[in-house]
Amino acid sequence: MLRGLSAAHHQRGEEGTKDELVYARLFTAIIEHRLQPGMKLPEDALTESFEVSRTVIRKALQRLALERLVTILPKRGATVAKPTIAEAKNIFAARQLIEVGTLDQVVQNIRPSDIAELREIARQEHEAQHARDHRQAIKLSGQFHVRLLSIAGNDDLTDFLVRLVSRSSLIIAVYGSSWSADGKCDSHDALIALLEAGDAAQAKTWMSQHLKEVESALDMSPEEDSEPDFKKIFSEMES
Amino acid sequence: MLRGLSAAHHQRGEEGTKDELVYARLFTAIIEHRLQPGMKLPEDALTESFEVSRTVIRKALQRLALERLVTILPKRGATVAKPTIAEAKNIFAARQLIEVGTLDQVVQNIRPSDIAELREIARQEHEAQHARDHRQAIKLSGQFHVRLLSIAGNDDLTDFLVRLVSRSSLIIAVYGSSWSADGKCDSHDALIALLEAGDAAQAKTWMSQHLKEVESALDMSPEEDSEPDFKKIFSEMES
DNA sequence: GATGGAAATAACGTATACAATATATAAATA
DNA sequence: TATTTATATATTGTATACGTTATTTCCATC
Prior knowledge:
Chain A is mainly α. Chain A has helices spanning about 20-30, 45-50, 55-65, 85-100, 105-110, 110-130, 135-150, 155-175, 185-195, 200-215, 230-235, and strands spanning about 40, 70-75, 75-80.
């Protein structure tokens, strides 16, 4: 079973080192919106929190940066990444391609135990939604999508989706003002039924629709808070 | 223009640090088969080659490890990654999904200048093939695929493909015993013609076929050199 | 009061030292 | 001679120190 959402397949024996723990803690904190996009992540402060040296902190931050969950600017340190609207669209487009495109294989490979696991995740999802625990709900929703794709049996695609889903979580943090856990209570259940029936075609249209809905629930109106675009402002002025 | 095959989009201002140079040199050496799969990459030895401290070397190696071009085993150091047959199949399956699935968008976005650039890469590819320069030919072939996908305008997918293509290069190093630059001299040209004609459907079938051909040109017979599978050996014995 | 610049402070990039662990070598035993 | 065990060596994991660069603070000036 996947621990949290964390990277799908570690290299043999990658556990046991301190940076793994730091990485995992930071990863979870970001995914769960405990650390919000734009927040600074100074190495010294983290050093004190985790009681390890900067060497270890830096390794974890660099990994998160490669996964685009944090942004590192030279000599200016790390911050929690803040996806732009363009990035958000790319990420959902990529998810469409991957998640819809692999469903044939998923339907072909799926076993009863897989369905049971998916149902269990969906159940926990309902639980979190009813408890209004957005953090947990978002995390579990992501787990569902990742677990589903893992059935296709392609570790590389699964790994890629883990990153896309992680970043989706950041996107929700930035643009999900109107994010509601309602209206999606039984959403994943419908898919499970289709999978159980072996109806790949309908599962694909369902998934495509689902991702579209998630995306359009976001408020991606032209960004306001970002730095004012003087070039545009002045080009729009007459005289 | 993409510098070599190197990662498609760097974070703003990621240049200028030493580890970038080390990373780029190692990346290129691996892609070009100057460092072959399985080769050890001891930190001290690299320290002397690059005349930087282990800190810098380690950062570069860790990045390459996350991109799966090198394998790091705890306390045992880094080696150039040696993709298994299963990995190879996953990588080509992922490439099919991504490269075929984005061609509609590519055809929709493509501009004359893009076509010109693709033609230029194809030309250099021919040149390298005629000169029997396999290293350069493989590298340019990868560049072609990446440049093509970049037209779709999805940086995340492009980035993912960069990694898949890099690893494809490793796969060729391991399983491409019968690799011949012949018979593919005009292969990419045919695609360019289809793109220019705006024929997305045919471009897709072409691409699918092309990737299949590349894959089946590999010799992925059951691996021999790997560690002896005692379980299998003894279960096959009678008495 | 607002602006510009210089000093002070804080944060990061890199090198290096030491500790912990794996590998290799050599000795000992069967 | 083959196998095992103990020691030595080599290599990686982590901490820390120092130099460099960005940011902040403060003061002079307009």
